[in-house]
Amino acid sequence: MHAEAPRLTRSQAGRRKPGIVHLGLGAFFRAFGAIYIEDAVEMAGGDWGIVGVSLQSPGTRDRLAPQNFVYTVVTQEPDGGETLRTVEIVDDVLVAPEDPEAVLARMADPAIRIVTLTVTEKGYCHDPATGRLNFAHPDIVHDLDNMLPRSAPGFLVRALQRRRDAGDPPFTVLTCDNLPENGRLVRQAVLDLAARIDPGLAEWIGAQGRFPATMVDRITPATKPEDIERLAETAGYRDEAPVLCEPFRQWVVEDDFVPAYGADARPDLAAAGAQLVTDVTPYENMKLRMLNGTHSSLAYLGYLAGHETIAETVADPVFASYVKALWRDEIIPSFAPPEAVDIHAYADALFERYSNPSIRHRTWQIAMDGSQKLPQRILGTIADNLEAGRACPGLMLAVAGWMRYVGGIDETGTPIEVKDPLAKQMRARLETAGSPDAAVASLLAMREIFSAEQADRLADPVTRAYAILSKRGARKSVEDLT
Ligand code: CS2
């Protein structure tokens, strides 16, 4: 441990007054949204300091507070080169479970014009199959009866309630999570919850609120302790909260912010390289299906084949052929890409991004929360292929790979630490299934994940793929396909 290296500190430059609260201050937003916002402020000014909020645990705050909320973004090039940038746009970090009132008070401040979120797919407490709020979720049950909430929708609704009661405009809710029509989804979750609490509040939010959709993209693997030690060696200072990421980044934002704030409703994100558009949908389909869909496919099958990272998985020629075939034959034909985008060149660029050996993005990390990811990453693509009469054996094998993975035992008989909100339910179903065919049927019967129609259409091909996977293993099953 390089204890002698001095701790990273804030430069003399003054802080920016906060204009944004961010719910879910994890590695991704610190390597992504914070960079765009800091660049926008550098180029076009504005009081757009960020107050981060951790909804679960104090870890991020505890690591950032001693260094005055400044941190390093380490951009990792394929050739091993690294670029360091210290980011100073984060002004404070609050921990909701410690002091929910402090979070609400900050969100209720009319100087806060935007609330951004990266709470992951499960953070919206919605039902992935329907997109509606899950009123049985324990945090929603709590938030219905308590003025001090626990969930992201709860904080959004209670803060908007305070804004409405004070006669102030609402803030714009800008979700930065990988969900289909993410703006509409978070708006629906907020309206569903608000309607149960105060129908007049739901009406006000519905009329005055703005929930623009976004597409976000930057591969940002979890930071490991050895990354911190290595940075202390190379940078000459100690940063307990660095983030590591690839050079690529892309932010596409629907330009729909609360009109009451006029020109001051958002930072000049375009000046920072973000794309402000009227319709994010084509970009969202492209990214969720081409990147996240193949990420998840490679994560389950690559993990079962013994590959620790995405780079190692696509370095395996069997998986390189598999992912290229997925793009060419099963994903690109399933959607209309944005105009002027060469979708084959986009796929080639994705392959190069996946191949970056400096980015140690673990298949295990991407495999997390599959029950919340599969619908928008893979099931929608399958549905569109089947509707068009196209078989999609590669994606069916990916679904079978997910089913094998959540069984919790890998191909060497070693337990898998399955992290998923539905992990217990899935494990119980698989343990009592009695046969591979019954196991597939039991998981397909989970309406939180698969609609009845999807379950019906996936039953035969996924049952076949699961049997082959169980018999021949992931790598040979993939090889057989390609
Ligand atoms: C990954 C994403 O962990 C995962 O599920 O697929 O975090 C992916 O790295 C980002 O969406 C890339 O923009």
What does this protein structure show overall?
- The longest helix has 30 residues, at 452-481.
- It is globular, with a radius of gyration of 22 Å.
- The protein is α/β, with parallel strands linked by helices.
- The protein starts with 17 loop residues before the first strand and ends with a helix.
- Helix 7 (182-197) runs antiparallel to helix 8.
- 48% of the residues lie in helices and 11% in strands.
- The chain folds into two domains: 18-278, 3-Layer(aba) Sandwich (Rossmann fold), CATH 3.40.50.720; 282-481, N-(1-d-carboxylethyl)-l-norvaline Dehydrogenase, domain 2.
- Strands 5-2-1-6-7 form a five-stranded parallel sheet, with helices on both faces. The protein has a three-stranded mixed sheet with strand order 4-3-9.
- A hairpin with a 5-residue loop joins strand 3 (71-76) and strand 4 (82-87).
- It binds D-mannonic acid.
- D-mannonic acid binds at residues 178, 217-219, 291-292, 295, 365-366.
